Amino acid sequence: MSQFRLTPDQQMVVNHGDGPLVVVAGPGSGKTRVLTERIRRLVTEVPGHFYVLALTFTNKAANEMTERLSDLGMAQKRVTISTMHGFCLELLRDRGERIGVIGEPQIFERAEDRQQILLEAAMQDPFLVDLLKQADEKQERPKLLRQWLDHIAKIKTHPLTHLGREEPLARHVVEAYDAGLRACGAYDFDDLLLLAYQLLIDFPKVADLYRRIYGYICIDEAQDLNEAQYAVLLALCGDSFRNVMMVGDPKQSIYGFNNASPEYMRKFYKELNARVIKLNENFRSSQAVIDVAKKLNPQYLIATLEDDRLPIQGAVKLFVGTDETHEAQIVCKQLEKLFTQGHTPHQCAILGRNQYLLMAVENELQVRGIPFYKRFSSLEEYDSPVVREFQLALRIFANPRDQLHLNALARAWEIDPSELVQLGQVVEQTGNPRHFAIKTALNHLSRLVDLRPCIQMLQAYADKLEDNEERRAIYNDTQVLLQQWDHYLRSGSGSSSKTIAGFMSSMALGTTRQTQADGVGLLSVHASKGLEFDVVFMIGMVDGVFPDYRAKNNPNAALEEQRSAFVAVTRSKRLLYLTYPKTRKMPWGEVWHSRPSPYLQSMDLVSSSSNQPWESRS
Amino acid sequence: MFAASDCGVRITQVRVANFRSLENIEVDLDDLTVLVGANNSGKTSFLEAMFAAIGAGRRLFGKEDIHLKSGETSVPIERKAVVDIRVQPFNEQIIDLFPLGSFWIGLWGKNIVQDQYDNDFIGIRTELAWNETQSEYRLERKFLKQWKLTGDWLTANTTNGISIEQLEPILLYYMNAQRDIKEDLHTSGSFWQRLVNDLGLPEESVLEIEQALSTLNARMVEESSVLKHIQKSLMKMNNVVTTEQTEITPVSRHLRDLAKGMDIQFATSGAQSFPLAKHGMGTRSLASILVFRAFASWKALQASSNQTQIHTLLGLEEPEAHLHPQAQRALFHQIKEIKGQRILSTHSPYFAGQAKLEALRLFQKKGSSSEVSRLDISNLKPDEIKNLKNLVILTRGDILFCRALILFEGQTEELALPVYAEAYWGMNIHELGFNFISVGGSTYYPFVWLAKYLNIKWYIFSDGEETPKIKLNKSLEKAEGGNASTRDNVFILPNGQSIEDYLIDQKYLPEIEQAMINIGDLQSNQQNPASEETIKTKFKIKSNKTRLAIPVTNAIIATDDLTRRFPQAIAELFEKISTDFGLKKVGGAS
After folding, report:
1. B143 vs A contacts (CB less than 8 Å)
2. Core-most of A276, A424, A527, B426, by most CB within 10 Å?
């Protein structure tokens, strides 16, 4: 790994001994490398019996670090690399009994699910139900619920400053919501941090054990810490433990949501009087990307720590194709050009609002022999009803108290939820082969914790279908599910026994996704969450596609679309290309003229008066 | 900050379920734990179960190791044997936490668990279960996430697999009763072989010695006419197959092969020394244990020079095998010197008698499964503990193996009761497995307590005098609740009488007189017999009591009237014992 020599500053970080350290690492300053090299030195050169804990924010970062340290051999076992949420999940799973967390915490990661929980909880609360009833059902009620969810998130992510000091209404909402979640045996993401914090504070001996195990703690992307994460870290350290290294760049704080702030990185080095080392050698910028991101989300702030040095420019460009094939050719030509300039395929990604947009570009990549991999799935993106429903059934299997998803499955099957308890009987009544396939798969699971045979059963069901599209969808979905299961089985040496509950929470945390493969990434926007690339193409930027036409008259969905666009844009670290075809061929043969996405207007890439782009090169 | 910390570990508790006769037991382990109990009571099964969990070496376990409930003819396929082991940090005593920087923190890391008092431990679960894909019984080991209460320990959560490195530093070496240094010397994998496999000679020396061996070989062949003849004949092979050279090596040329033929010469002082293999089983068994001792301390030495640690356990079955009592006691001290934890199973009262009371674990079979009990002496006062210890030593450990305990106060009873008993059942009390114990000062409590713990039936035969009666009731109150009048295993002489009073009262004066005559205390004088008062007075003189006890008893059991051979109170005691043990009275009238 050490084929490159470290700069003196980098070497200083690697050689830092005990005590707190803040590394302010500018873009492209070799942050990850410095981090992994330091960990390597700690476990190979520092004598003693201890482990090193490395906390990251994204699974991708965790995977990258794990990969870079994979040559450590036996010493690798002494390094725990995890995301913050993953670490807290494990802490709760292994030691949460003291605060009432029994077994594997099941996470409701989808906003809709949490909103539903809140709605149901509020409807049963004499005080809140009045407020809901006063609100207009179509417009104001969803708004009220979203507002409440924001309150909840704010309180939960601020255990140091807000918790216990909230207003009576807010407290009421949080309590009702938490009660609703717990009744389903479920937790949300913020709970993972909050409960881990409470566990460490209320049971200081637990934190003490972790301090004896971990000789050093390293935090990656420290600029993205939120108060809850910072609180967990402080609780872990207690009064005595100071071997903490934070690496981050306050300028790159992009998790505007999640209540993150570079404030905590600053606090850490002020309060603990940490040594500061700056890595400025090599700047790589994304100013252009940040500019367009800001246009999509005006609340998106780029914070600065001390000096206000601006990053260099970067680039955002628009390309317009005559049709989808042409669009694909433009993208591929540009890619090839970038490769000649020294970019490598795995630093590049092509994103589409949905996976079907990427078919033309996939063909083109194949024709040109450019290596690529595809990832379209995240939890909510199964196309086939049978796999969607099987996944609901898995949730219920993992957590029998999960009334929410039981109801969802019951709705899908058009039966009464109370009947669903007796799955076998229901299936006999409905006589629906899809239901039967799911039941058979579940039966198998109750004997042996192995998804593979279940997947074969679902595929066998698909083979009997006449609709080839659905059959293909099932095969695609089950393939993805199988990959995730495979990845789950391989993950986490020495962690908990493999269970369906463990699989579900790993999926929620996104840890079951494959580590980055070689080649250009072909990703749906949703699947791109948490990843970053030097070069990002967002293709199919057509009105009706992105934002989806169904969001037109639904402000809620429209907002979600806009957030997705923001996420997609911010996946790029350096170069961002947005493309759209002037015409699109519909599956039934018609050719449609397309209007550019309104987002392109927001980004000032097309003028609002005419639909003509600023520039179009090929 | 990470200075090597001198912290050891101890296995403090072992739980076994569904392993052979062990349906569900829990055994606390000390540094030295002594398993006692009848044959087939589960002691060996327990050691084997521990071996399955952390044993050094390979042994196959299978279907026949799974517990068969009474009435079952075959083992249900889903039943699995489970062995849980709890490991705690130790530094001269059990300590709460693995210290910062200790080897064990590095070894187990996040798998360290905290109990309800926040104390660190490691739980290791071993399961022997049917593996469908492999079509065989397989051992699987996991870390435990909790150490549950005795009642539902099997439901404890586990984490995924333990790596070999995480298990390796804790090893149980198991020596069964068939150990024999003669076998060890030539069996690969024995402690002997493991020790001598690498002699630790410097490489130059190995070369030098092997060269010397070659020279030796050449010289032997050269000077031996027989060998030379053989070699010549073998050379003829060259005519048939192409061989470069034919060579005879009377002595192995390689040092490591030579080690396989190593022998030990052993002599008692003044006698001719001859190889161990020619010694008796006792010596060979003993030598085997001593080799283990060398092995264990060598291993510990090696570990500490590599900055690692090991924790060695020795499971030793019947250390007393083939040894005479004196040697057994000597061996006990040898075993105490072995490093690490030792678990001994023994049938030897000599051996058990030397162990601390709290180190004993009693195995008993109940139906098709075994039960284990231990002594918890934390409730006893220091003098009570002393009494018990003296008792165990006094009875040479017999008490630990007896079937019934008959307690009383006074030397007369101590001498007389065994004689009555032998006459009553026609068997010596040792054959019967009964222990007759005189307790000083009527302090019955520790003995009753011990008997209860060991699950031994107990009986009290007491004077009717006021002070002993009060003390007796106090003891019973403490041990059992209730008093003498509510128990059917307590017998008190009526009307405040001592045993002497009682015999006089029961009109045994003729027999007493006869006894006194028999030992010459009285002249047999038909014309001028001693007055009743004289006999009574003589009989009750303190200094005469012990002298007269056996003669009087012999006289009574020899009396012509069969119905009077056993005084009423003693007969009642024996009747009760007969009922409890299904014994038959053979002496006197039935």
Report:
1. 494
2. A527
Q: What is the ipTM of this complex?
A: 0.74
Strands (E) located in B42-101 = 81-91, 93-94
* Distance from the A375 Cα atom to the nearest Cα atom in chain B, whole angstroms: 29
Integer CA distances (angstroms), B570 to A45, A118, B494, in order = 80, 82, 12
Contact B100 A209 (CB under 8 A): no
Mean pLDDT of B14-25: 95
Contacts of B160 in chain A (CB under 8 A): 492-498
A297 CA: distance to closest CA in chain B (Å): 42
Which residues are within 8 A (CB) of B182 and not within 5 positions of it... i.e. 6 or more apart? B276, B277, B284
Nearest chain B Cα distance for residue A516, angstroms: 26
What is the distance between the alpha carbons of residues B508 and B513, in angstroms, rounded to a whole number? Answer: 9
Angle between helices A468-490 and A385-398 (to 10 degrees): 30
Q: Is B226 on the interface with A (CB under 8 A)?
A: no
Mean pLDDT taken over chain B: 85
Q: CB-based contact (8 Å) between A80 and chain B?
A: yes
Residue of A43, A49, A206 best to disrupt the B interface, most CBs of B under 10 A: A49
Q: How far is CA B8 from CA A104, A233, B51, B113, B169, in A?
A: 33, 31, 21, 17, 11
In A29-185, the DSSP E strands lie at 51-56, 79-83, 106-107
Question: Contact at 8 Å (CB) between A220 and A30?
Answer: no
- Kindly report, residue by residue over B427-449, the tens digit of the pLDDT: 998 888 899 988 877 778 888 88
What is d(CA A369, CA B39) in angstroms, rounded to the nearest whole number?
77
Band of pLDDT at residue A618, cut at 50, 70 and 90: very low
* Eight-state DSSP code of residue A471: H
C-alpha to C-alpha distance for A346 and A372, rounded to whole angstroms? 8
> How far is Cα A114 from Cα A106, in angstroms, rounded to an integer?
13
Searching chain B, which residue's CA lies closest to the CA of residue A43? B106
Convert the pLDDT of each residue in B142-151 to its tens digit: 999 999 999 8
Amino acid present at B217: N
A103 interface with B at CB cutoff 8 Å:
yes
Which residues of chain A does B146 touch, with a Cβ-Cβ cutoff of 8 Å?
A: 97
A498: which chain B residues are within 8 Å (Cβ-Cβ)?
Answer: 160
Q: Would you state the pLDDT for residue A323?
A: 93
Measure in Å the smallest separation between the Cα of B205 and chain A Cα atoms: 34
What stretches of B22-77 show up as alpha helix (H) in DSSP?
43-54
N residues, chain B:
590
* Count of CB atoms situated within 10 Å of the CB of A293: 24
Comparing CB atoms, the residue among A77, A205, A494 nearest residue B159 is A494
Contacts with A, B 73-102, CB within 8 Å: 97-102
Tokens of A438: 């799911």
Inter-chain residue contact A212 with B104, CB threshold 8 Å = no
Q: A503 and chain B: CB distance < 8 Å anywhere?
A: no
A156 contacts: CB under 8 Å, gap ≥ 6? A163, A174, A188, A190, A191, A193, A194, A228
Nearest chain A Cα distance for residue B573, angstroms = 56
Report the distance separating Cα B251 and Cα B289, nearest Å: 30
- Tell me the pLDDT tens digit for each residue of B363-381: 988 777 888 988 777 877 8
CA B4 and chain centroid, separation:
37
| Cα–Cα nearest to A324, from A58, A611, A103, A586 | A586
Contact: A498, B160; criterion CB under 8 Å: yes
- pLDDT computed for residue A27 by the predictor: 54
* B100 alpha carbon, distance to own chain's centre: 37
Q: B97 and A212 in contact by Cβ < 8 A?
A: yes
